[in-house]
Design a protein that fits this description.
Blueprint (H helix, E strand, L loop, with lengths): L1 E7 L7 E5 L2 E4 L5 E5 L4 E6 L2 E3 L4 E9 L7 E5 L4 E13 L9 E4 L3 E4 L7 E4 L7
Parallel strand pairs: 1-9
Antiparallel strand pairs: 1-4, 2-3, 2-5, 5-8, 6-7, 7-9, 9-11, 10-12
Amino acid sequence: MQQYHQRILQQGTSAAVLELNNQYYYCSNFPVTISVSPGALIKYAFTSILPGPTGIRYIFSNVSGLGLTSQNGSFTASTNGTINVYYKKQYYLYMAASPSNGGTVSPGSNWYNASTSITITETPSTNYLFD
């Protein structure tokens, strides 16, 4: 029996993080050790987006260990090892002028990686000012 240790670095969601041979694993399960026989075919898929608290989500970034380089695929078990999956934290930026006819703002509402600088511009409508 070979031992595969699966670890996620961002926790705190109830969404499935990993599907491994038709079995689902959640953040609350991690870290988890999975025993498989040498030569066994392992099929895996990491969730693309993990929801977080309001206005926060985690986006699949990369995976490392045992030669894995993609979000999903398969490999044949041949050795013990550790697989690490990494997710980027994102925040939702809500943009709107108030009142709505008071002008426009840019960029539009969207998700942005943590620590990303965003340039915000505003264009007031006639007889309006941004304060």
